[in-house]
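Structure first, sequence second, as always.
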């Protein structure tokens, strides 16, 4: 049996633990370990995977590892995820798309590099998800939706047909959009909100 390629994860918080579960379930990669922003974090491992170093170690780690995934969460701003994603690209890491086997992504949809589709999310026909996005557990991305780069569509959120979600947007848990609206870049949509557009 061929050995699975190893992948490193950037960010050791709660979202990282959820991402580990998806990576393990998908089965394409072996998690080599975690990179955290500073030394002396809460522990020396996350779900049994070692902390390999800090952001400063990324150039050296590139000599050993080809694949990486940003596993820092996103609520108020996408700035940290964007900075890490750009740094990984500059260092020559490959940033795969990770899709849970318990999710559904239409063959007629597109998902960008470095994005993760979590358990039981649905991405329907004609939809596109930009790079470095989180489509969280049980989120629904309906037909012909365009999700820009660096967005977090949170747990149980519903983006209805034909919506354009601007880059860097956070769309909260159980929030719902009406169809065919544009959500400006960098928007913050509260949990449980009905987004009608402007």
């Amino acid at each position: 049996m061929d050995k699975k390629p190893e992948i490193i994860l950037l960010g050791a918080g709660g979202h990282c633990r959820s991402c580990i579960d998806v990576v393990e379930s998908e089965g394409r990669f072996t998690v080599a370990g975690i990179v955290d922003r500073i030394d002396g974090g809460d522990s020396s491992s996350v779900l049994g995977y070692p902390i390999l170093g800090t952001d400063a170690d990324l150039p050296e780690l590139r000599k050993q590892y080809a694949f990486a995934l940003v596993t820092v969460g996103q609520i108020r701003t996408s700035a940290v995820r964007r900075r890490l994603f750009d740094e990984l690209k500059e260092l020559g890491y490959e940033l795969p798309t990770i899709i849970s086997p318990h999710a559904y992504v239409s063959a007629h949809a597109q998902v960008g590099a470095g994005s993760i589709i979590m358990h039981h999310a649905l991405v329907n026909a004609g939809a596109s998800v930009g790079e470095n996005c989180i489509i969280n557990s049980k989120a629904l991305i309906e037909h012909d939706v365009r999700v820009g780069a660096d967005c977090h569509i949170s747990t149980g959120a519903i983006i209805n047909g034909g919506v354009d979600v601007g880059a860097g947007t956070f769309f909260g848990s159980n929030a719902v959009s009406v169809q065919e609206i544009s959500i400006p870049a960098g928007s913050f949509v509260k949990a449980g909100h009905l987004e009608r557009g402007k």
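Margin note: DSSP finds three helices and 22 strands in the chain.
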